[in-house]
Specification:
7 strands; 21% helix
Length: 205
Amino acid sequence: MKEILKEKKIEHLIHFTNAENLFNIFRYGLIPRTELVKRDIESAFNLRSRKYHDAVALTIEFPDYTQFNAIRFRQHNLPWVILKIDASKINYNACAYSPLKGSELRYGQEGFLSLFDEVDDQKSRAEMELDACYPTTVQSKVLCYETIPVDAIKEVHFPDADNYWIYKGTIPKKSKAQVKVDRSYFRTRHDFEFWKVNNYKPLPQ
């Protein structure tokens, strides 16, 4: 996997969460929901599909804005953050891959590479001007079935200064993660106009 990550220039995996979870994330790591419940670790769960609660859902280099924005629309009063995870610190042997929403899970290096396959009846990656690091669809998922360690978290992005100042203190001062205000991951990916996903409309930027 190291060679694939290097070849595709993949540096980060992305996870979005409620800022209320930062305290425990930086204490225990990113833990699958079923394990959080088993260990009685407090967490503010997202309102999303009941699938994959036994895994930490990640995307490659950019959030799944179709899911993220839908959740933010339904829970607009909650504080959201983006976590950037060091791609080299993921145990890919403990992962499964979903190229498209609802698709059959795939495994191993072939499963990972399938996230970058061309999609039938869709513009090519070249026509959409996708960098090598981006999966073909923004809905592609990396599902990690084990805890992701705290030291794998490299950056925390807040969409606004207000929540930055409210929640920055929940992150230990000894943490090496960069904490910043940056809205770039709260927008759509540049190829948005090529996709028609359930009549999806982006939130105001």
